[in-house]
Structures are given as C-alpha cells and as structure tokens.
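Figure S4 source data
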Amino acid sequence: MAITLPARGFKWREIIISMRLIFQNPCPVPKQFDLIACEGCGSNRFSTLTDWNDLSKVVQCGQCGLQFVNPMPNQEYLDQLYQQDGEEHPYYRNYLLERTDRRSSYSKQYHRRLKLIENYAKGKGKLLDIGCGGGFFLKTAEERGWEPHGIDIVPGFIQFARNELQLKNTHCRSLEDLEYDKHFFDVIVLWDLIEHLPRPANFLETINRLLRPDGLLVIWTPNANNAAWLKENWFGYKPLQHLYFFSPRTLSQILQSAGFSVVYKNTNRAKKGFFTAPENRPYKKPERPLSKVDKIISGTKRDLKNFINPVNYISPLLDWTGYGFNLYVIGKKTAECTKENGEAKNASAKISTPSSDLTK
C-alpha cells in the first residue's frame, strides 16, 4: 500500500499517521491510488460523504473540515482521465466557438472581475492566468492595461491565444515548468482550477514564490457549503476531475498556511446547486435566435420563469450567508513560504483545464 503524506519534512508524527492509516483502512487501496492524510492539517480522521467513483470516496477531515477525494488518484490515473476528454471532445472545440460567439457578453464579466481585483491591487502590473484556456480573460486584462501571461496544458488553446488573440506571453506548460523569476508577478488568478489539484498546498506555495510581496492570488472554485441541502447529490461532487472541495473557512485556512491573508471573500449563484443538481453537459455549438421576434419570445419566457421561481428570491440570502455555488476569494501575500531547502515539492500539481468547468 502506498502512503503519501504532505511534504513537511521527515517527522515521527508522520510515521505514526502512516501506521494509523494502514490499520484504520484494512481494505487494499486500488492501483493508481494513494491513501493520504489531510492536506490542510495532516489529520487522518475522516468521515465519508459520498462515492467519488467505484474506486474512491469523498471524505471530510474530522479536524479542519476540508473535503477531498481519498484514496487520491495518482498522476498516471489523472492523465488517463483527462485524455478521455482530449481536444477532439466537442466540449473543447465548442468552448472556443462559444466564447468567440459571445465574446462581448463574457467581456463584461471579465471587466467586472478585473475591476474588483484592481480595487485591491497596487496598480496594474504582471498578471498570470494559470489554466488560461483560450486567453479570453487575459485579452480583457490586456485591454485594461495589464501585462498578461498565461499557461495551459491544452495545445489548441495556447495556439488560439497566440494566433487569434495575439497573446504572446502564453505557454503550453505546467506551473512547475515555468522559468519566471521569484516575485515576478503582481497578480495570479486560478479560475475553476484549485479543485482539480492533487496537492493544492504545495501548488499555493509555488505561487507564493512567484508573487511579489503584497501580490494578489485570486481563486474561483465551487463552494462546499453549497452541498448543505443536497448532501451527497450535490452537483460539485459529480465531475471526476474534482479532487478537493473548499468552503470559505477551509480555503481561508489553507491560504493562510501558504502565506496569504484573505482580503475579499464572497459566494454567489446559490440556485445553481443548493436545491437542484443541474445537468453537467459539455458546451453545445452556439445557437442564436433566428429573428428579433424569437429573441423577444425567448427573453419573455426566461423572465417569466425567473419571476415565478421562489429560489430566485431565496438565492441572494444564501449567497450572503456563504452558501452560494461559486466561492470567490482574493488573498494577499503577507509572508514568504519556507520549505525544506527552500524548494516546494509540487511534482504532482499538474495544471489541467478539465471538461467540466472552463470559464476563461
């Protein structure tokens, strides 16, 4: 049985945890999976929330409350998982078509996000989007005066960003392969990414070193508090690419341990997952109404449906109390991360743009 623990140096405490994990989990761990201790606090006390698939579970730490998949799939298994949704999958092809077709609408969303970031940033400097997709967010950032940089592991996305959007500082590589100097960036953003990382703590420590003092880390991720009503049927547990499930409290804790203080925290769109589980479908090819009359009829039906739906009136209260589906956090770097020999061991923290929640 393979036991993988957070990289915190060799300690007797970790040996004890390893032995406990072995004896408390007598069933053999599936091939390509590793039984792990809590990434947030090192605890080995968990309660099972739901099945992740036939091979693993979604568990909750009994000490800090962090939710994650355990046993954790190793990188070989994750690579196989992502290859099933390769660039030829309609999701990836239609992502570029949909974002291009509705670029004006998405641009408004990106401007709102950037305006919020600029409220906390010390001027407009170098911005890195990790898992940048086709670069649509970065293009809006460039238009607002930022120096955009982006990475993604999907070659077609980087080709589009470079050739169609003229974003030259975009690269098809993972974070550990970056060659930027320490303290190079002013802002780093993770849109729907941190939930896909098998070692988020190590990943955040690498980001810490890339950010200048007082630099900002921006995270957008599904909110585990949104599962309060649906429990194991919550929409956020369904995609197999999701490995961690953060609440405002647990995300704040892991950010603090990585040298960040939370300066902004918000949740929204509670109606997306609190009472109902929407169908997780890949992008469809964009379709526009054929005429102005069709647009009016479509808009009227939508407005009427929203008017009679009581969830639309409850949703703002749920958002305000921290139960919205999306968790939006901005952390400011307040301390340098220190690791053994000054290096983070983040070999398993691969950047992925999975087939369930591209938002770029």
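Figure S5 source data
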Amino acid sequence: MSPSPDGRTDPRFARTLLQREDAFLREDEGDDAGFYEQPRLVSHLDATALNTVERLVAGLIVEDDPVVLDLMASVDSHLPSRREFSHVTGLGLNEEELRANPALANRVVHDLNADPVLPFEGGTFDVVLNVVSVEYLTRPFEVFREVGRVLKPGGLFLVVFSTRWFPPKVVRVWEDAREEERIGIVEELFREAGVFGNSEYFISMGLPRPEDDRYFSLGVPSDPVFAVFAEKKGLVRDRGTRLVLRDPAQLDTDWAAVQSRKETVGETMECPHCQGTLSKWEVPDDPCIDWPNDYLYLCFNDFCPFVVRGWRFMWNQGILGTSYRYLYNPLKGTSTTVPIRGLTDLRPGIVDEDPAGRFRSAIKKGIPDFSGMTPVKEYGPKLGPSRG
C-alpha cells in the first residue's frame, strides 16, 4: 500500500493488519527469556539516529522532575543528560543490560509477552518510553492498555522505532508491513487502548550516517527514526507545551532565494540549495545515458537540504531508499536532478584538474574519490510546538 502524503495509512487498513490470524507469530516461538539471556551491550541505532531520539525525548518531556518508565529497556534509556528526573525505572528481559544503564534508579526483569500486566500501581508514571522494541510485542493491545493504567492523567507514552530488529523475534505483522504502515499500526494500538487522546507522529530520515559508523562505506543514510506518541486522557494544569523536534524534511527554505541562485549557477558554480561548491563529474560512457556532455556539475554535499528532503519526498511517493542530487548542465545552463540509491553513488565520476590542466577521474582510476565533498554545518536541534 502506497503511503499517504503525511506518511500514514488509513486506520481501517492498520486494523485489518492487526486482525490477521498470524499477526503476532514469530520465526522463533521459543522462550523469550532464553533468547535474551545473552546480554547485548550495544546501541541499536547509529549515532545520528540516537541523537535524534534524545532530542525528540528532550522536547516532549516537559514535566518537572518526572517519574519515567523505560519499557523493554536495555543499556540506554535515551534520556537527555541535561534534564533532572525524579525517578527512572527500567523494565526489561536482561538483568545485566539493565545494570549497565546508568539512567535507571530501579530495575525490573519482566517478560511482557508472557505476562503483559505491568507490576506497578495505577497512575505511577508521568512518562513511559518504548524505544526500538514495540516490534517484539506479541500482546501489544494488552500492553498499551497497561501503559494507560500506570500513567498519570495527561502522562506521555512515546513509542520510537526504526528499520532494525532481531529477525527471529519480530512479529509477522511488523515484518510484513511497509514503513508507513507501521506508523498506522502503532496509531491503531493507541486508539484501541481507549485511554489516550489523539496520537501524533514524527519522522526523521535522510541525514548522513556518521563517518565512524561501520555501515558508512555502504553509502546509506542514517537509520530512520519513526515515533508515535500520545497523552493519557485527563485534565492537567500548569504544564509546559510539549515540543516536537523539527522534521529534517520540513526545514525552512527561502525558495525565492534558491530560484534566484539557480539563475547564476553558471557564474558561481555553487549549489543553489546549500551554496556548496559543485563538483565536476564525468558522464559515464553508457548507451542508456543520452547526455551529450562530457562533463556535468553535481552537488556532493550529503547534508544538502535538497538531498536530505529527497529521501522523504521519494518515500512519500512509495519509492523507498532513493533520493537525488542537484545537477547543473553547463551546455544548456539548466538545473535538474539525478537519482541516487546511496550517498556513494556517482562519486567515482568526480573529476579534479591538476596544475598541468589534465583531468583525473575516479572512473578511470577505478577507485572512489571523496575529494569533492564539502564540509557543512550539521542541523541544530530546532523544535516546534506539538501539533495536538
């Protein structure tokens, strides 16, 4: 099913997915405690995505000295270090992982798939977090109702997920669903619980992966971050407004200025979107390419807003894993785009000119050339008011 313009699906479709007889079956139906007996003292997202999650949490938690439950916790609760918390409880399956989490004041080993009843009094917590683990719940309807029970009125339940999981333990409905359908699935779980107000969602995708990440050489962007959150129904007084982290695909742009810069690209040789220097690029000798040029000029800035937005724009069209780069054609004096499926795509064609005027191309050398990459400033933690 293709995504709707806002990235979600029809709630009736999500309900149908969740009602499948095999929705919560898994490849490994063995004891979960046994599977998670071996501690995994690692992060399950890359550093850019982890930073996004922490900044999202920082904006949404506005209570003074909140009491927090980290549901299905591990070594990191993704709580901002600059905030004060009255008490943080972690509930998970591996005691060693919980002990390694410095944010936790209380640690509870509990298998929600065996027993979805949370071992806490009603109205205990201001905030419940569930980060990159909702896909393992075999009884999610019961767990979401339990979260509603242990939250205080007006309390926040935040569910964060990405595109990584342990294949043997992920439930079938999650594995079979498309990314945008998973947003709809979590929204439906909130609705079915019956105790939450209208849910909201957040999406971040397309930011470059850190250079020290083990998958950086593959050219794939940072792990996408999807979040769905809602408050428990109930009147709350004298509390600040929850703030939602700015979606990278919705960064402010002066489109008139971009258009004006496009008219002078032939003089500046700068990308009109990020104003980084364009790289000379040798057109491959390929019968499927009909450019008459020997050379074109491309923006290879991976932080360029044009590239970052591209992942999300193509995703909204139902084309996953694809973006595009800005391209300038000097023969025609025109601006256009060229599609990419990874950030290393097209880089072998970057050309440099040596002092003798001879051109050097990585295509001819047969090796990637990253010399055309322009240093840029990373996006700051801009926040916007909750849409609720």
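The first helix runs from residue 11 to 18. The chain has two domains: 11-245, 255-365.
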